[in-house]
User: Fold this.
Amino acid sequence: CVSMGDNLQEAHKLAKEALGLHLWGFERDGEDIPEPSAIDAVQSEYPGEVIGLVEVSMAALRSKLDTRAVKKTLTIPYYLNQMAEKSKINFSQVLQSALKEKLGIRD
Assistant:
């Protein structure tokens, strides 16, 4: 996976995007994700080029790319259900927000 840009900031941004989409493709296709390359090996393969480390949050990327909804059945106390319905609370939104908070996922 190779990326480049007009300046370092753009190159890093595009490298993150390229790597994320590349890894996403591996996941989607059920392929094993290869081990990261050693920076020394990359540097020797591309002498004279600027080489940098790139980190991608796959959890954040998955949330942006895979927006399929799944139906979940859950049980809550009767009084909470009554109060939430009376307040017109969207149960799906509350559950999604709570799960993201619990899992440390930031949009």
In short: The chain has a mean pLDDT of 90. The two ends are 25 Å apart (CA to CA). The chain has two domains: 1-67, 69-107. Residues 8-28 form the longest helix (21 residues).
